[in-house]
């Protein structure tokens, strides 16, 4: 089955790319753009930067020590997308493999001398994931031969010992290769890598061993910490190991870590990461909007983890977080033209970025960049959008369940349905049965959708007036299942309330106190100020119901919002030592100056669309409390 994650057991069974097909719509359009534009964009940049040339032995070697992994993620994207460039790129990669299976363009000749920062096993992890994608979409070929040779080399070299990699990912990759091939040593190798961590297995570093989750054994950890991508890739591998070995204690440990992390260390967008220096989680409730890091890769890793936990447990909370993350992080990470990307995704940008069209040498920036020195995010987006259908629905014992609503066709067992919807802009979801069939159809009612309704409309009753026509009933957040049998033409009509809503932060998130944000459906909104629009630094909003507006750029269907705000004139403070109000040279005093701003209508745009109109300032969290008098 064409699917990146195929556990052998679980409450839900995965549906792959052969069962779920996207149609034009929010995600179908993005997947098509990815297939037609982004994948080639990545390949061109990797060639231009010399990262592909490294495999041909071109010298000097170029790129960071882990640049091989970018080619592997691209190969994975190509495999899922059926891209015709895969065989040629795989042939280039194969040239660099050594006789015993070793493959790394940076460390060849000085193997395994730096487990903390060398990323050799990390690179194998992404290579193996590419091979699994190829096996499941095409079958054996040169790429899968290379992958098996590399995986066998890893097992020979590392099965007995204490070593592991500073950057996890090989754990989940090996489990998936086990699932794809049935070769048990891959699972055992993954299990040992998981159990070695935290004993500790790696050297201490200035960031501390928590940076690479080597501070305590994974079973004892209370929360995700350290480098976010590492933490979430590791946790994904831990879930995989737990599921395949039937280790309930291990699974429960990750569930508890996830729960605390979501409750205390996750931004409104679903993004994770509060510190730039080490790309890490902060302490509990350390969630500053302007210093939010929220690496695009971290959001992808979060989706990978939540998906695994969802399949294992069937708990709807994992699908709710996935939805939040897909619409507000994955969709944000790539520009509307598919050719530039965000690395960090803060919730406030104070200074408009300077436009450029070359390599961004940092992860920062208020504009998407076509490429980065470390270009993990573009390739990660490419492979995720290429395999996205696998995350949208699942099989149940006797039917299907739809986690995410986007135009698509789904076939599984004795069910074939078409999903028609303008979601996330509209809340109407129509699930039309395509052929006579049987089995339950389940729909997820999102946590925010308190007033949702569902109607079952048999094909025979579609034109009938009430009371013989459809019966509309309220449904609560969670999963709702409707029993078959079904006749071709039968429909389920789900109506989700799309009224914009104000959202307030937990008081313990001190950086957000006194602020509120606006959400509508699954989307987080933000104020964005380009060119001569009002600045956002000194504003106070009124939490009145936001008004819906068509998109300022004319984009079809897109809903923008408008609220009333008071934008001050840079009022300062008064009184106190050294403070003398505006222009006093000291921004602290005994009292805040009275608010003297004029009321304006403030336009809010979906967060995932921000930064597409040129350099801008932006903020998600809007102050609701005027300065103290
Ligand atoms: Zn990244």
State the helical fraction. 25-40%
How many distinct beta strands? Answer: 26
Provide the low-confidence segments as ranges.
none
Ligand names: zinc ion
Radius of gyration based on Cα positions: 25 Å
* Global structural class: alpha+beta
Count every helix, treating DSSP H or I runs of 4 or more residues as helices: 12
Q: CA-to-CA gap between the ends? A: 64 Å
State mean pLDDT (0 to 100 scale). Answer: 95
The proportion of strand residues reads 15-25%
Question: What is the compact description of this entry?
Answer:
The protein is α+β, with helices and mostly antiparallel strands.
Notable characteristics:
629 residues; alpha+beta; ten-stranded antiparallel beta sheet; seven-stranded antiparallel beta sheet; 30% helix; binds zinc ion
């Amino acid at each position: 089955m064409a699917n990146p994650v195929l556990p052998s057991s679980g409450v839900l069974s995965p549906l792959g790319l052969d069962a779920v097909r996207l149609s034009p719509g929010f995600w179908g359009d993005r997947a098509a753009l990815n297939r037609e534009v982004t994948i080639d964009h990545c390949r061109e940049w990797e060639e231009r930067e010399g990262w592909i040339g490294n495999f041909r032995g071109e010298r000097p070697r170029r790129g960071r020590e882990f640049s091989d992994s970018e080619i592997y993620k691209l190969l994975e994207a190509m495999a899922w997308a059926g891209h015709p460039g895969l065989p040629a790129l795989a042939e280039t990669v194969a040239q660099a493999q050594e006789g015993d299976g070793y493959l790394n363009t940076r460390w060849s000749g000085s193997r395994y001398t730096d487990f903390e920062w060398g990323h050799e096993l990390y690179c194998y992890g992404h290579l193996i994931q590419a091979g699994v994608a190829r096996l499941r979409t095409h079958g054996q070929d040169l790429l899968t031969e290379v992958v098996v040779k590399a995986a066998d080399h890893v097992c020979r070299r590392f099965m007995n010992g204490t070593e592991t990699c500073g950057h996890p990912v090989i754990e989940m990759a090996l489990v998936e290769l086990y699932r794809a091939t049935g070769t048990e040593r891959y699972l055992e190798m993954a299990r040992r890598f998981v159990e070695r961590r935290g004993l500790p297995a790696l050297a201490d570093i200035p960031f501390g061993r928590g940076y690479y989750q080597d501070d305590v054994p994974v079973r004892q950890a209370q929360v995700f910490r350290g480098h976010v991508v590492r933490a979430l890739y590791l946790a994904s591998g831990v879930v995989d190991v737990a599921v395949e070995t039937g280790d309930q204690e291990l699974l429960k440990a990750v569930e508890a870590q996830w729960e605390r992390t979501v409750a205390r260390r996750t931004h409104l967008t679903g993004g994770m990461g509060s510190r730039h220096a080490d790309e890490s989680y902060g302490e509990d409730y350390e969630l500053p909007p302007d210093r939010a890091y929220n690496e695009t890769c971290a959001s992808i890793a979060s989706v990978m983890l939540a998906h695994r936990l969802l399949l294992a447990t069937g708990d709807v909370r994992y699908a709710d977080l996935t939805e939040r993350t897909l619409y507000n992080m994955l969709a944000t990470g790539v520009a509307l033209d598919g050719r530039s990307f965000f690395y960090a995704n803060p919730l406030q940008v104070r200074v408009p970025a300077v436009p450029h069209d070359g390599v961004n040498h940092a992860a920062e920036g208020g504009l998407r960049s076509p490429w980065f020195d470390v270009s993990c995010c573009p390739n990660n987006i490419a492979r995720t959008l290429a395999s996205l259908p696998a995350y949208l629905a699942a099989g149940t014992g006797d039917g299907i369940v739809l986690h995410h609503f986007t135009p698509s066709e789904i076939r599984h067992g004795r069910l074939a349905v078409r999903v028609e919807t303008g979601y996330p802009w509209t809340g109407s979801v129509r699930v039309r049965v395509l052929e006579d069939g049987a089995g339950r159809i389940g729909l997820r009612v999102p946590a925010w959708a308190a007033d949702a309704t569902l109607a079952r409309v048999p094909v025979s009753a579609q034109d009938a007036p009430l009371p013989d026509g459809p019966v509309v009933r309220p449904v609560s957040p969670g999963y709702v299942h409707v029993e078959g049998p079904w006749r071709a033409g039968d429909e389920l009509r789900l109506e989700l309330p799309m009224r914009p809503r104000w959202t307030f932060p937990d008081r313990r998130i001190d950086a957000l106190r006194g602020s509120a944000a606006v959400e509508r459906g699954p989307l987080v909104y933000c104020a964005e100020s380009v060119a001569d629009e009002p600045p956002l630094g000194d504003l106070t909003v009124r939490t009145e119901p936001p008004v819906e507006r068509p998109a300022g750029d004319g984009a079809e269907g897109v809903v923008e919002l408008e609220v009333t705000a008071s934008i001050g004139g840079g009022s300062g403070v008064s009184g106190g030592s050294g403070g003398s109000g505006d222009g006093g040279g000291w921004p602290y005093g005994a009292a805040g100056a009275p608010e003297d701003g004029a009321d304006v209508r403030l336009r809010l745009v979906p967060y995932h669309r921000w930064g597409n109109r040129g350099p801008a300032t932006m903020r998600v969290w809007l102050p609701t409390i005027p300065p103290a008098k």
